[in-house]
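Box S2. Input/output pair 1.
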Amino acid sequence: MTARKRYWLMKSEPDAFSIDDLQRVGTEPWNGVRNYQARNFMRDGMKVGDGILFYHSNTKVPGIVGTATVASGAYPDDTQFDPESDYHDPRSTREEPRWMLVDVAFERKLAQVIPLEEIKRHADALGEGFPLTAKGNRLSVFPVTAAQWKQLLALEKKPPA
C-alpha cells in the first residue's frame, strides 16, 4: 500500500527566494522556518513526492506563482547552528536540533500569478478557515487538501494558444 499524496502551500518573499530562483537551482533546502507549527508540518507531514503550491508573499501582487514537489524527508536546518546566520538559534544543538526542513524541487511556473485577491473571491469554495483567506494566519507552510489544490490551480489563467 502506498501513502496518499499530500499537498502544501509554502510562502517565500521573492526578494529572498523566488520561483525563478528555484527554477534556476532545481532543488533547494527550505531553510529558515522558525515557527513550530510550520516546522511540524515539514517534519511530521511532508513526504517525498508531495505537491507544493509556491506562493510569493510580501510583494506588490502576492499569490501562487508555481508548483514544486517535496524532494526529501525532513532533516535539521543547518542555519540554526551558524552564528553568522539570521536564522541562528543558540538553544539548538546538533544532538537536539529544534528546526527541520525539507528539500523542494521545481516543477513549473504558472502561466500567470494567481493573486491573493482572486483566491479570496473563492474563500467559500476553499472552505472555512483556509489559511490564505483566514484573518491573522501568518504560517509560511500549511497543508492544502486535494480539492483545494485543484480549485486553486483551476484559477490559473492560461494564455491563448
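Box S3. Input/output pair 2.
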Amino acid sequence: MKAQETEMAFIKEGSFVPLYGVVSKKPVEVKSFYIDIYPVTNREFLDFVKKNPSYQKSKIKGIFADKSYLSYWSTDFDFGNAKPNSPVTSVSWFAAKKYCECEGKRLATMDEWEYVAMADTKKIDARTKKEFNEYILSWYEKSRTYENEIGKTFKNYWGVYDMHGLVWEWTSDFNSIFLSGESRKDKSTDKNLFCGSGSVNASDLMDYAAFMRYAFRGSLKAQYSTRNLGFRCASTTKPKI
C-alpha cells in the first residue's frame, strides 16, 4: 500500500470567480473530487520509474521530456542529495500524467487546483485576505524551497498541505487559458496576461499571487521540466485502497 493511496482529501463541490474570464465574472462550478494531501515525493516517484522503465531518466524519449528531466537525480534509481520526502521536481507533464494514471488517479484541472489553493487554514476562499497573499508572494521570493520536505507548510481548510510554499504544480490543462478564450466562455484569448498590463483583467487586482501562477503555467510546454515544478494527483471518485 502506497502512502498516497490513503492520503487524499475530499473536496466538496462549490464555485468561485477565477482570475480569468472577468468579462462576465461568472463563477466556475467545481464538482466534488479528491486530491492528494501532499505533492508526490522523490521516494514515490522512484517506485514509479522502477516499474515503468520508459520514464527513467536515461530512457525517456525526448518528445515526453526535455533534457532537464530529473536533472538533479544522479542515476535512474538515485535521487542524489535530495531528500526522500521532498517533492519530486524536474518532471514533465507527460511523466506526471502517467504517474497519476498508474495510481488510478489523474492530474487536477486548473480550476480544481485553484479552488483548493484559495483556502487558508480557516476559510474556503481567503484570496481577499492581505496576510494570505503576502504569505504566497513571500514564497515566490524565496529560493530552493523545493529542497524542503512535504507537509511543512500550513494545513488548509480542506486538510491539504503545500499548495503554497513548496513547489509549483502541474495541472491537466495547465495552459488552456492561453489557447482559447472561447473554451473559458470569454470574449478574448487572455493572451494579454503574459504582460504586466494584463493584470487589469484580474478579478481582484490584489490577487497578483494568482496572476503569477497563470503567467507561469502559460509559459510551459508539456515536455518542460524545471527544478521548482512538481505535481500531485487528484481523483473524481474515492480511490480504491
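Caption for Box S3: Residues 1-5, 179-206 have pLDDT under 50 and may be disordered. The radius of gyration is 17 Å.
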